[in-house]
Write a structure and sequence with these properties.
Blueprint lengths: L2 E4 L23 E8 L44 E8 L8 H30 L8 H9 L3 H24 L5 H4 L9 H23 L7 H14 L3 H31 L2 H14 L4 H21 L3 H20 L11 H22 L2
Antiparallel strand pairs: 1-3, 2-3
Helix pairs in contact: 1-3, 1-7, 3-7, 5-9, 5-10, 5-11, 6-10, 7-8, 7-9, 7-10, 8-9, 9-10
């Protein structure tokens, strides 16, 4: 606003300061240095004036204009003030990152605790306490995971923890929750989102191919996951896609790219923020081989969310990648880490590679 008159009057006590060229009172975060000239209340028309200007308040005397505001008082013939004001902007506070670190660290053990408790309760309800005898639990778990209820029990509790933690922490933030979680339109046109979605499969394919150089077979956890998806792919395909593609795509992106990465990028270099959120994201998958496999995907999704200034395209990319994984279990065999050049994989590469190269151009463009 700069230097200029503020009127009509500034009086002692709770008072409202108004800009001369605006009907809106000065903001609560504005600091004013005031200098009074002319006639003030109680001065006689022919009285002597003090030619000395009052000293400007020292920095320690500045007060935040947070008092209750009243409508500007009416000027009278014997009571007027001319006030010159200089608006001093307060230095913005640095966003807090300790809350992000606490939420990110606590969410993973909480998801494990809640998910494990739900599975244990389901085991007792389904098979009784005998299920915890030697080797009985492994057999029950393998059979139960291939039921529709078992699929929900294994997937949804952990996702619910991620959702509650991300949304709950965002609601406690001074920022609007939608902005805090990156749930806005962003800066890129919608057609770039389509390009990012089409480019995502090649990240997972290349990641698997690199891991195949060091690991021959899937881990036991990944084998069980593949068997579970194969069991539901025929008669429960829509439910399978909802629970292993749509729900994780939305919820995990809200937590790791929305809540964690968005705040870290406000304080740290974007590359470091993307890396940290990707590491936390991969750690949430628990199985060591799975963690290594999804780390490049986490980096890609973080780059998409950062470049678009929105978590929404990252959600679509994540969900689309998981849909491809479901299709792979239905139409292909994934007992090893090697990428088989079957028709579906070949088509995915033919589409994804040009889209990925075009995505790199989008990242570099303004």
């Amino acid at each position: 606003m700069g230097n200029g008159p503020v009127g009509p009057a500034c009086r002692a006590g709770p008072v409202e300061y108004w800009a001369a060229d605006s009907e809106v009172p000065l903001g609560k975060r504005d600091l004013l240095r005031l200098r009074h000239t002319g006639r003030s209340h109680g001065m006689q028309e022919n009285g002597n004036k003090n030619d000395e200007e009052p000293a400007l308040p020292q920095p320690d005397d500045r007060e935040l204009l947070a008092d209750a505001y009243e409508s500007p008082p009416e000027s009278t013939a014997d009571s007027q003030e001319i006030v010159l004001a200089e608006v001093i902007e307060l230095a913005p506070r640095k966003p807090r990152i300790w809350t992000v670190l606490c939420v990110g660290i606590l969410t993973l053990p909480m998801a494990m605790l809640v998910g494990g408790s739900v599975v244990a309760f389901a085991a007792i309800a389904d098979a009784g306490m005998e299920v915890f005898q030697k080797d009985a639990f492994s057999k029950w778990f393998e059979e139960y995971s291939q039921t529709r209820l078992g699929l929900a029990v294994l997937v949804l509790p952990g996702q619910a923890v991620f959702l509650v933690m991300a949304v709950g922490a965002a609601l406690l933030s001074p920022q609007p929750a939608s902005r805090r979680l990156g749930l806005h339109r962003g800066v890129l046109p919608l057609w770039t989102w389509v390009v990012f979605i089409l480019a995502t499969p090649i990240v997972a394919i290349l990641s698997s191919q690199v891991l195949s150089l060091f690991v021959d077979e899937l881990s036991d956890s990944l084998k069980m996951m593949e068997q579970m998806m194969q069991a539901h792919a025929d008669g429960f395909l829509v439910g399978l896609i909802l629970m292993v593609a749509v729900v994780p795509g939305v919820v995990e992106e809200l937590m790791f790219r929305g809540y964690v990465q968005t705040r870290l990028a406000e304080r740290w270099h974007p590359g470091l923020a993307i890396l940290i959120s990707a590491i936390v994201f991969s750690a949430a998958h628990l199985d060591p081989l799975h963690m290594l496999g999804v780390l490049p995907l986490g980096l890609w999704l973080g780059a998409v969310a950062w470049r678009a200034d929105s978590v929404l395209p990252a959600m679509l990319c994540h969900a689309g990648n998981n849909v491809i994984a479901v299709a792979g279990t239905k139409y292909g065999q994934m007992q090893t880490m090697d990428v088989a050049l079957d028709p579906m994989t070949t088509a995915a590469l033919a589409i994804s590679l040009p889209a990925f190269l075009f995505s790199l151009y989008i990242f570099r463009s303004n």
